[in-house]
Design goal:
This protein starts with 16 loop residues before the first helix and ends in a 7-residue tail after the last strand. The chain is globular, with a radius of gyration of 19 Å. It has eleven helices and twelve strands. Helix 2 links the parallel strand 3 and strand 4. By secondary structure, the protein is of the alpha/beta class. Strands 1-2-4-3-5-6-9-10-11-12 form a ten-stranded mixed β-sheet, sandwiched between helices. Strands 7-8 form a two-stranded antiparallel sheet. The relative contact order is 0.13.
């Protein structure tokens, strides 16, 4: 469709006209059904055999807002399957009324869809909470060759929601929300009360993005009690971190105020299988700009290639990520290889392929 799959053109304001044209020309939309809910899917597909990346989004944005995290993979030779969470973006279901368990199950259905459509190899990416649910859904899934996440934690850990207060306050809120979710599951609270937006998009440079986002007709302004409760309640992963054999890369922001580096590192250190830690030095949780997004994707692409992703030769000739003229990856970071005794190596500029 010439409108990018969404008749309302508000989403154009997140991008340059050239990026809008690229999104429309490169992608198509479809849907899958998960637990009887229609799930919106955006697909970037190459006409030849290619590795496939499956991704969702966090609990604030939706997929069409994040094309700058989708296009670098497509430019680098990967198919991309991006899906919107139930009740978010262009997916069906009660607005922000899903639960974390439902997101985990939808992850499984999305990967099954991608496997049926494209076959192996498959890779997954998570940018916020979707990284945690991705791990829960696909740790030790033989269909997943490797995954990259921006957040790694366990539901029920008070540090995962530390902005709600000290551990004893988090536990009280969990009990109270649990009662409310059982009695009135569809009542809601402000999304800014569930996730502190200022810790995600709080820099002065983020003001233009926030202005566009806060007037976005697809933005969820509130979370239903059942979603908020599921973010707090204890839910252990099916595969303990120590038993995970799926290669996992963690790209952690050093100065994240919402999911602290120390928490991410604690869970990363528990991983029992192949792993790679990239620290975004001096970076907050996220920056809504092209440099940050393409830097993040460059690390993920390196990891996926190290774990069997083979792209067509013409994409290799273009480099790690095919950037337009004038595009830069910016200053990269230190990459930690734990299998070598947590040795750290400083990197700047482009990563080697």
């Amino acid at each position: 469709m010439p409108d990018g799959g969404l008749a309302h053109d508000h989403w154009h304001r997140y991008y340059t006209p050239e990026e809008v044209a690229e999104i429309v020309a490169s992608s198509s939309t479809t849907m899958l059904i998960s637990a009887r809910v229609p799930i919106h899917v955006r697909i970037y597909e190459h006409p030849h055999t290619a590795p496939t990346v499956v991704m969702a989004h966090g609990l604030l944005p939706y997929g069409l807002m994040l094309a700058r995290l989708q296009l670098p993979f497509f430019r680098a030779g990967f198919n991309v399957v991006q899906w919107d969470l139930p009740g978010f973006g262009q997916s069906g279901g009660p607005r922000a009324g899903c639960t974390i368990s439902q997101v985990i199950e939808t992850w499984k259905d999305a990967v099954a869809y991608a496997e049926a459509r494209f076959g192996p190899p498959l890779y997954t990416v998570g940018f916020a909470e979707d990284g945690v649910t991705c791990y829960y859904a696909h740790a030790n899934n033989p269909a997943i060759r490797a995954m990259t996440v921006h957040v790694l934690s366990e539901y029920g850990d008070p540090e995962n929601v530390h902005w709600q207060g000290p551990p004893w306050v988090v536990r009280l809120k969990t009990v109270a929300l649990g009662i409310a979710a059982r009695l009135q599951p569809i009542l809601s609270l402000k999304a800014t009360g569930a996730i502190p937006w200022d810790d995600v998009f709080g820099r002065p440079e983020d003001a233009p993005f926030r202005e566009v986002f806060e007037s976005d007709p697809l933005r969820n302004e509130s979370f239903e009690f059942r979603l908020a409760y599921s973010m707090l309640r204890k839910l252990r992963p099916t595969v303990p971190f120590e038993e995970c054999q799926t290669p996992v890369q963690l790209i952690a922001s050093e100065l994240s105020q919402i999911w602290p580096y120390r928490m991410n590192r604690r869970y990363f250190d528990r991983l029992g299988g192949p792993k790679d830690l990239v620290v975004l030095d001096g970076k907050p949780h996220w920056e809504f700009n092209r440099d940050f997004d393409e830097n993040f994707c460059a690390h993920a692409i390196r990891w996926f290639k190290a774990n069997g992703a083979v792209v067509a030769a013409r994409f290799e000739e273009q480099g790690l990520v095919a950037l337009p003229a004038g595009g830069v990856l910016g200053r990269l970071t230190r990459a930690v290889q734990p299998e070598n005794g947590a040795a750290e190596q400083a990197r700047e500029g482009r990563l080697p392929t």
